[in-house]
Structures are given as C-alpha cells and as structure tokens.
Amino acid sequence: MPVMERIQALVEGHPIVFFMKGTPQFPMCGFSSRAIQALQGAGADADKMCIVNVLEEPEIRANLPRFSNWPTFPQLFIHGELIGGCDITLELHESGELGRIVAEALAQSA
C-alpha cells in the first residue's frame, strides 16, 4: 500500500493517532515526550491510542508533513483531523480542553 494511503488508513482507522519520535516509554525528543505526557495526563493511555514511531517508519516520517501540511513532529490526530504538535497539545491540556476531546474520542470509539 502506498505510504499516503497507509497514513490515511491510520488516521481514519483510529480515534486517536499520535505520530512521535520514539515510544511513550522511550520518547526520543523532548517535544514528543512533553506531548505524550500531556495526552496521558488527559486520559489517553498508550493502549487507547494508535502510536506511530516515525523513527521506525522512515516512509511515514518523510511523507506525513506533506499529508498533514504540518512540518514537525509530533503530530496528533483525533477523529481524522490534525490537532497539532507539541505546543498545541500542551495548550489544550493546560486549558482542560484536551481531556474533553480525548474523552469524547474514546467514548465514540467504544
């Protein structure tokens, strides 16, 4: 399957998709680390999300910025829509909005 179709299938096939450098247990950059902590703090445990380690998926790493029109990692998608990267994820968490969005996404997928 072509990489753009794979990305589309991931984003559409899961309520929460997080493209990061590394894994939740071993993030490989500070931005991914802070964003995954915010997500987990908002109730999105790693087993409830689709996590893609872009360091192990070079085709996805190379093409995701073109797919999303977002140049950096991490990237958070909820219900097929790009939410944003680290800064936006942290802002949403601090405002309490991320918890609401995550809870809605998980409830709709249950």
TrEMBL record:
It holds the Pfam family Glutaredoxin. One of its GO terms (molecular function) is 2 iron, 2 sulfur cluster binding. Keywords: 2Fe-2S, Iron, Iron-sulfur, Metal-binding, Redox-active center. It comes from the Bacteria. CDD domains: GRX_PICOT_like. [2Fe-2S] cluster binds at C29. Residues 16-83 form the Glutaredoxin domain. Glutathione binds at K21, R61, F73, C86, D87. Coiled coil: none annotated. Belongs to the glutaredoxin family. Monothiol subfamily. This is Glutaredoxin. It comes from Pseudoxanthomonas indica.
